């Protein structure tokens, strides 16, 4: 299990993500194409590009790719103010202000890329959106593997996502998935080919995405 | 055996050929010109030849800004692009179509045998490598009777066969520049024809290499036909001394009497003897007035006699005199005699009639004058005889009277079949009249462009080794549909042991690695050593008596 944790979870602010079986967020806004969730703990959102799932009810599980993460004041009207002074900086600010986790929150937005009915995976939009206040969890590597192995049609959904840095999102998702699957780059090649088909008219964009996909393979 | 998929069909026409996109996992360098591929359509299967391989890209930007050096991270980019944005196209020439037995369509009987492709398969049909079964469906299997394996495709270990029965129906040609293995190929095919008893062979062996052993390019000895087939092949020679020196035991020595030479022979020798145009007229006059013995009589006339005779018969003295001096060159040939008690040609003819194969060696008489004269005198006789036999058969319509097909192998064929000679000589007649009289030719030549186009167009099966001269290549494709496609295939032949086979005896053109002429081949054609054969022949004679007695 520790091995799995190490592999799955990039370190964030020195803290570690929870394993996937336990929820990492709760849905606070839901629609057919995307949902917004609040992270269970402050600053503990799933990584950009990660595959997350929401078990909406017994039959339907909706999958999303994390496309945007934000930490801000709970009250949408008020902004956070500077709390640091003298040598109280960074982590010590949190220690001196234990109320911070109560007034701040981390939210993440996920693009809906597919769903599962029973054992069947589909990479298109689900018949109904995930339910509000249901739990979001990070997919286990097996799930990531199964999802990517079933088809790569979801890349088209990411490509069409609105109001997100699409190219960065695609690259981040491929990097993340490749790191989860760990198959010596076979997935990356397959996904690269799929992208090459999708972006056949835009060679410049294709190469810039592909070059960004590659960097973390060596790290992973 | 599941066929290896190569790609899928994306464009094409019957006239221009097809284009298929290569699958990303297929290495472009594995697909070579001349490769035999199959396309499975909805109703038919199509057999095609690869005539070109091209690089293409879905987006021209890729070519303007190609990925960097393979050493860098761009290696990933290359991997992704290859087969998606950049890909290979193969150009295919559909040659044959055959019913796709896996489809639900009902077919006529005729659809079950390969036919020339008259339509094309639909978009995105699957293109795959042909399997051994496909080759057998198209080319048949080497069964020792009708089909004879001539070689293998360039990139596969599958037999490619000639249909021997169709092969001997028409005159055939083996072409290729010097040193490309023409004579080995000829020997190979002769072995096949003899083994299958598809035709009786007469071989004019100018360089004494077919009958008895000869050396290959590496200098090792290879067996001749007579060693392989024993008494079924008789070797005759024009030069007994040379034969003895090489340890060959010929069945006899050929002598030609002057009375066996006719005007037709003189016509053919026009170039060799540098005869004037009027010489043929002079010779015709002599033959008309002096009868069969005209050559001898003309040679015997002295100056005044010739003048008298010319005046009497209304001939031109100068041209008669020139003809006479040229005829002396013939008279001086060692195998030409003033008169013979018994014509040695009769023996050869009788042997051919019995179905025995004859190799005629020229020994040291390999000058063109000797070769052309002897070949023409003998061929003319055989042609006359076979025409008579055929006419007899037409009258009686009795299968027993049907003449055996006779195949005459000649080298340096352009000497007999050039534009001038082909119109006037027996060889030209044989080449044009075709199988009507059961006599065909196996023409072996390095300059096919020197052969009359009319004769070339009648050649049934063409087996072509490497050729470089444009005119020769043009000549090969005279009267062949799809010539331009095949030209590119021919241009890629290696200089050794590769040939392009096209025509009557193969259902579609095919590039082959020719079969090796070695002990494995000797064993495969089931020819025993000469000792075994002669031992059997002796035993046969003991039981049934000797025919010749």
Estimate the mean pLDDT confidence of chain B: 84
Largest interface (CB within 8 Å) is between: A-B, 18 and 16 residues
Strand order of the largest sheet of chain B: 9-8-23-22-21-10-20-19-11-18-14-15
| Mean pLDDT across residues of chain A | 86
The main β sheet of chain A shows up as: 6 strands, antiparallel, barrel
Strand order of the largest sheet of chain A: 1-2-5-4-3-7
What is the CA-based Rg of chain A, rounded? 18 Å
In terms of DSSP E residues, the strand content of chain A is 15-25%
Silhouette of chain A: globular
The portion of residues assigned to helices of chain B is 25-40%
Taken in chain order, the helices and strands of chain A follow as HEEEEHHEEEHHHHH
What distance lies between the first and last C-alpha atoms of chain A, to the nearest angstrom?
Answer: 18 Å
Secondary-structure class of chain B = alpha/beta
Multimer state:
heterodimer
Strand content of chain B: 15-25%
Question: What is the helix tally of chain A?
Answer: 8
Radius of gyration of chain B: 28 Å
Shape of chain B: elongated
Descriptive notes:
The complex is a heterodimer of chains A (220) and B (549). Chain A is an alpha+beta fold and 220 residues long. Helix content of chain A is 36%, strand content 24%. Chain A is built from 8 helices and 7 strands, in the order αββββααβββααααα. Chain A has helices spanning 2-8, 91-96, 100-103, 141-150, 154-159, 166-181, 186-198, 203-219, and strands at 25-30, 34-39, 51-55, 60-73, 104-117, 120-122, 135-138. Chain A has a 6-stranded antiparallel barrel. In chain A, strand 3 (51-55) and strand 4 form a beta hairpin. Chain A starts with a helix and ends with a helix. Residues 1-19 of chain A have low confidence and may be disordered. Chain B is α/β, with parallel strands linked by helices and 549 residues long. Chain B is built from 22 helices and 23 strands. In chain B, the strands form 4 sheets. In chain B, strands 9-8-23-22-21-10-20-19-11-18-14-15 form a 12-stranded mixed beta sheet. Chain B has a 6-stranded antiparallel barrel with strand order 1-2-5-4-3-7. In chain B, strands 12-13 form a two-stranded antiparallel ribbon. In chain B, strand 12 and strand 13 (221-222) form a beta hairpin. Chain B starts with a strand and ends in a 5-residue tail after the last helix. Chains A and B meet through helix 7 and helix 8 of A and helix 2 of B.
